[in-house]
Amino acid sequence: MTDQTANSTNKYRNYTLFILTTVYVFNFIDRQILVILQESIKQELNLSDTQLGLMSGFTFAIFYVSFGIPIARLADKGNRRNIIAVSLTIWSAMTALSGAAQNFIQLLLARIGVGIGEAGGSPPAHSIISDLFPAKKRATALAIYSTGISIGILIGFLLGGWIDQYFGWRTAFLVVGIPGILFAFILRFTIKEPPRGLSEKGNTVVDQHHSMKDVFRLLREKKSFRYIALGAGLAAYVNYTATSWLPPFMARVHGMSSGEIGTWLSLIFGIGSGLGYFMGGYLTDRHSRKDRRWYLWLPALALILAIPFSLVAYFATGKNTTLIAIVLPAFLNSLFLAPCIALTHGIVGIRMRALASAILFFVLNIIGLGLGPFVGGVLSDVLQPTLGVDALRWSLSNAVIASFLGAICFYKASKSIRKDLGVLT
Questions:
Q1: How much of the chain, in percent, has pLDDT values that exceed 70?
Q2: Could you tell me the residue range of the domain that residue 142 belongs to?
Q3: HEC-encoded secondary structure of 150-199
């Protein structure tokens, strides 16, 4: 059996998707573990909310996206599997080292290391998945991959919360970091690098190479992409604001322990967001057979529907009301990701996909990961002298504005997406 035949079997495609999704799980365990631990870190290292937001958001995002583009360019030319394996090793090792930090600067440097490592994770994985799965199944496959976000948050919140409560935050970093290093070897020695454009069945553009300038120019010319990227960034802003500041919100406002917070939020975001990431791809793949604009209409509608439930969650006086109200937004605010990646890959060439993903994620993470946690922390510190612990209510609710603007962007993108995809429906 040739490598191309082996790569094209359903069993192997699904196995590869499983391995890459597991890598993405490690990605978000290591990225989000800081969130559930930040109250303990804040107390021991005497940090402000702005410093916490800087570590989990802006500084992390700057290095993540800055390294993401050149690594993605390398992935479009070289062996994507090896890039992912090396990246997983780096970010897992830096997560483990985070537990040894003695001050803000040391922990910040460790988190920068995590960001640099994680820059080599998703764009090469997106490219591999798009090579293995045909266009009509691509959003669903990318949606399954995207569930790694919610599974990672689930495990990170659950493990981090209870390990922090009984063994301390330093141990939590060590426990979640080491397994990723071991899994990198499984990835390296059980996954093959697939042929470029395998799912396109030998399309003649497979062997064409493009400069970075070509990719940037093409995406700039696609009006829909500009709105897709901006909408995805605003949707991510909503998600990162919630996952970053709900743990300290539940601790300060509702008096919950770290273990209790980790358990409930892991279930809400692990299951709710997981279903959202999957259904976003599945539903849009299904409905887009009639009209491709459903790839954008569904995320737009979801962001609008989530707004009233988010406001109830943030301003409720009881913890149970908050926990119940946040379930639906966790689902709805996650529908956007797989359709956005699938559309981005649909409007570029085969050897542009990793870089196109990196450019999409550059915008997404600068706005979402970079600004969401950071703005939330700044607002909390500014409002705290007058509002006390209730400052976090208003800090969290600023994301509602991003929900509304994100929906507008997705709707605007739907106006030109059919032209940019080169289809009539």
A1: 94
A2: 3-196+211-421
A3: HHHHHHHHHHHHHHHHHHCHHHHHHHHHHHHHHHHHHHHHHCCCCCCCHH
